[in-house]
Design a protein that fits this description.
Chain A is mainly α and 307 residues long. Chain A has helices at residues 2-29, 45-55, 61-73, 86-121, 126-140, 143-157, 175-200, 204-211, 216-245, 248-253, 259-268, 272-300. Helix content of chain A is 74%, strand content 0%. Chain B is built from 18 helices and 19 strands. In chain B, a hairpin with a 4-residue loop joins strand 6 and strand 7. Classes of the chains: A mainly alpha (307), B alpha+beta (543).
Chain lengths: 307, 543
């Protein structure tokens, strides 16, 4: 187990370097970021040259990348064009997005799995059919439609919530945005759980458990659900990374100042430091989440062993 | 979920009931909705640190306008430059100016505003090593080429044209005659700075200190700023509310929705998609007033195809092929008006605005347009591609409409197509590298309400915003003459003659004048926008 973890951690190194290099190159291809800094006019050449020197943009690309990576390992992600250190931006953005992701994942787990178990155990009944139709609707409607609709109904028409989230972004304010963010994944979790449960319900170990005379809820939770959750856990694990990075639309609709907002701003202003810094952290989150998912397999299914 | 609002309503009711006893206790909340006589307003994250000489966009300018007062201030209604901190600005030759600062002005930290506050601030703004993006504003002052050379290192730290001659007086010597120089001094780059700006720069940037009607109470970069009325403000335009909370919105649609729900008091950029409903949505609490912004199509004169006598006719033809009225009515719903000259209506007739100066060259006339394009030798390359940035300001819609209009007028489906560029930064990049092959979007927001500002930076040879590199000796000569002319009316006339040269060559196609728009909740009264399309915060009354 220990060796397995070490091997996986080592594998992360090339993935990490490759991913950051790609992002670095992509942002660089977009052109000279200093040009956008002076509004509808050309920066005067002397100031432009000095800014380039200060941001290190006058040096060859490989050198820029090497310096950047050196700084990253020293914990310095550089400075955004507005003079704020990128670490400061991260310190304000990541807690917000993590809270939003936690809310979203909780929705996925609680609602998604409960609905999945319910429908999986009652295949073909009216509950099953109606939930299936509902998930189909949720999957086919784009997030921004759900978001804007809920914002208009709950925020303006009925006045239950504030249409936007305050800069503090407390958990209570993030419930509706979290639900919107989770909606599509939630539908997938429901469907995955349902299929998995329905399949395993006819397997030998469940029949054995029932024959032993175990109470029904024990059969379902300890035997059936535990074995059926493996694909669901995989999905949710990889979804964490996707939720954190892909919240741009939701964050824009509800004016949440999280990772999506900083990335969007960074891309618009062609701010290499911000974009590469945030994406680097997101890559790390993705890698770690994947490792945790793999380790969870062993917990859920005793047949799986890592050496 | 419904608790925050309900609680707030209760709190309000309690405040009203207890009003007679302890009215003050209900104010001062820092919540996003604002309470007491504090209003909340939409904001965008300023692109640069909030140094006066480094702020060149409207969001940072909004804050500076509340926190600073300069020698002059542009009247929020008429746009006229009026003395604010200046007691007098005297000159006999339009080149040497003696400026006296009024007595009794202070920064909100108690430090008096003196002649030195101005001279130090201007020297800081001009110096190359401080990377100030508005440095070129000091380019008229003698010694600028030493503190800010085009290449190489600076050979001086201070402008030789600035001299402090007393606690409240200083002199300015320009490197050329510039009669309307005093009127440019209302621009934020010329604001005074307290000594803490130089001694504790980091601290100042985190929480700027100025001499305006508001002081900054707290500032969370990238999300919100709380401004409070400064009780010690000595000026005539004291704030009529207790403060303003600026909240950063990524999307103006969200800000607009928040205003509808009463979660935000003022949105100063009503999104184009909402214009259709705004009047009924807000029950008349919507303003739409002219701002000093003009949108044009510029041309690449570094491309020989566009720099021929025939191309002049083609440009005029294209201008006459655009149905401005129809586009401003249908796409912008009256928030823009067809342009008939190259300035802006906010200048007023005696400031240099002349409706109809463009004449028939800006009038929709498909038949004449077709004829002119044919006479000019047809479209260079057989097609015009209008380049624009697609990330902001719904440019795609109007570029497509302009192309459609041109295609219909010329009877050729492929005469004009839009050429979107992903980001503004890349768009500017391509322009500065002279990569344009046809007309491109050019917007101009005035820095100060003078006709000079609409002409010289855009069409003078090698001027800072002359992106198309247009050059005409007659135009340059008329502008030089106008700048040297000390009689204001005569100077305006000369500028208008120069504008005539722009028209005769159709150096850029004027499209429309842009209005500023804002929507607000019923808590606010006396909401107005100044000619820079920024709300006049100090005049807003709450409740």
């Amino acid at each position: 187990m220990g060796r397995y973890v070490v091997r996986r951690l080592l594998q992360m190194v090339p993935v990490f370097i490759g991913a950051t290099l790609l992002i670095f190159l992509m942002v660089n291809v977009m052109g000279d970021p200093v040009a956008g800094l002076c509004g509808e006019r050309q920066c005067d050449p002397a100031t432009a040259a000095q800014l380039k020197r200060e941001f290190g943009l006058d040096r060859p690309l490989w050198q820029q990348y090497a310096t950047y990576m050196g700084n990253v390992f020293a914990g310095n992600f550089g400075t955004a064009f507005n003079g704020q250190p990128v670490t400061e931006l991260m310190a304000s953005a990541f807690p917000v997005t993590i809270r939003l992701t936690v809310v979203a994942v909780l929705f996925e787990i609680v609602i998604g799995i409960v609905l999945g178990v319910m429908t999986g155990l009652r295949r073909g009944r009216p509950v099953d059919t109606s939930v299936l139709v509902l998930t189909l609707v949720v999957i086919s409607v784009p997030t921004f439609v759900t978001g804007l609709l809920l914002q208009l109904l709950l925020g303006v028409k009925w006045g239950w919530i504030k249409p936007s989230v305050s800069p503090a972004a407390a958990f209570g304010e993030l419930i509706v945005p979290g639900l919107v963010l989770a909606s599509v994944s939630l539908a997938y979790v429901t469907r995955l759980t349902r299929t998995s449960i329905a399949e395993n319900r006819r397997s030998d170990y469940v029949r054995t458990a029932v024959a032993k005379g175990l109470p029904r809820h024990r059969v379902v939770t300890r035997h059936l659900l535990r074995n059926s959750l493996i694909p669901v856990v995989t999905f949710i694990g990889t979804d964490i990374g996707a939720l954190m990075g892909g919240a741009i639309v939701t964050e824009r609709i509800f004016n949440i100042h999280g990772v999506g907002y900083q990335l969007y701003q960074g891309i618009l202003r062609q701010n290499t430091q911000t974009v590469v810094g945030f994406v680097t952290v997101l890559v790390l989150v993705f890698l770690v989440a994947n490792l945790l998912v793999d380790l969870l397999y062993a917990v859920l299914d005793p047949r799986i062993r890592y050496a | 979920m419904r608790s925050p609002r309900a609680v707030k309503r209760l709190a309000w009711a309690a405040c009203v009931m207890a009003g007679a006893l302890a009215a003050a206790a209900c104010g001062g909340g820092v919540g996003s909705g604002g309470s007491g006589a504090v209003l909340s307003s939409s904001w965008g994250d300023p692109q640069n640190p909030l140094e006066p000489a480094n702020t060149n966009e409207v969001q940072g300018g909004k804050v500076l306008d509340m926190v600073f007062r300069g020698l002059k201030r542009y009247d929020p209604r008429t746009g006229k430059a009026k003395n604010m901190l200046a007691q007098s600005i005297e000159t006999t030759d339009s080149r040497n100016f003696t400026i006296t600062v009024r007595d009794g002005w202070k920064f909100s930290n108690g430090e008096p505003v003196t002649a030195k506050s101005f001279v130090d601030a201007w020297n800081y703004g001009a110096s190359l090593r401080n990377n100030q993006k508005n440095a070129y504003f000091f380019g008229y002052i003698e010694g600028y080429d030493q503190v800010h050379p085009e290449t190489g290192r600076q050979t001086a730290d201070t402008l030789s044209g600035l001299k402090v001659t007393g606690p409240r007086t200083f002199t300015v010597r320009l490197n050329q005659k510039f009669s309307t120089f005093p009127d440019t001094l209302g621009y934020a780059a010329f604001d005074p700075l307290p000594s803490t700006f130089f001694t504790d720069h980091e601290g100042w940037i985190a929480k700027p200190v100025g001499n305006g009607p508001y002081r900054i109470e707290s500032y969370t970069r990238g999300s919100a700023m709380n401004l409070r009325k400064w009780d010690g403000y000595p000026g005539p335009d004291k704030a009529r509310n207790d403060g303003v909370t600026l909240l950063v919105y990524t999307d103006s649609n969200t800000a607009y929705t928040d205003v509808l729900a009463g979660n935000l008091d003022l949105v100063d950029d009503v999104p184009a998609t909402q214009l259709k409903n705004v009047k009924t949505d807000l029950n008349g609490r919507y303003i739409n007033t002219p701002a000093g912004i003009i949108q044009t199509l510029a041309f690449p004169y570094y491309d020989p195809k566009w720099n021929t006598p025939g191309a002049r006719k083609v440009r005029t033809g294209l201008s006459m092929a655009i149905n401005r009225k129809q586009i401003t009515d249908t796409i912008f719903r009256g928030t823009r008006t067809p342009a008939t000259d190259w300035t802006s209506p906010v200048l007023g007739a005696d400031g240099g605005y002349k409706a109809g100066l463009c004449g028939e060259a800006c009038t929709y006339d498909p038949a004449r347009a077709r004829q002119l394009v044919r006479e000019g030798g047809g479209l260079p390359g057989g097609q015009v591609r209008i380049t624009y940035n697609a990330d902001t300001g719904s440019h795609k819609q109007w570029v497509d409409a302009v192309c459609n209009s041109i295609n219909n007028a010329l009877g050729n489906d492929k005469a004009c197509v839009g050429n979107p560029v992903g980001t503004f930064a890349d768009f500017r990049n391509q322009i500065s590298q002279h990569k344009m092959s046809g007309p491109f979007r050019a917007g101009w927001q005035m820095d100060y309400p003078l006709i000079q500002n609409f002409l010289q930076p855009l069409y003078y040879t090698n001027a800072s915003s002359n992106d198309g590199k247009w050059s005409d000796k007659r135009f340059d000569h008329l502008v030089d003459q106008a700048n040297a002319e000390s009689d204001r009316a005569r100077a305006v006339q000369l500028f208008q003659q120069a504008e005539g040269v722009v028209r005769d060559n159709m150096a850029a196609i004027p499209l429309w004048y842009q209005n500023g728009s804002a929507g607000y909740t019923d808590r606010l009264h006396d909401v107005a926008l100044n000619p820079f399309s920024v709300p006049v915060y100090d005049e807003i009354k709450v409740g």
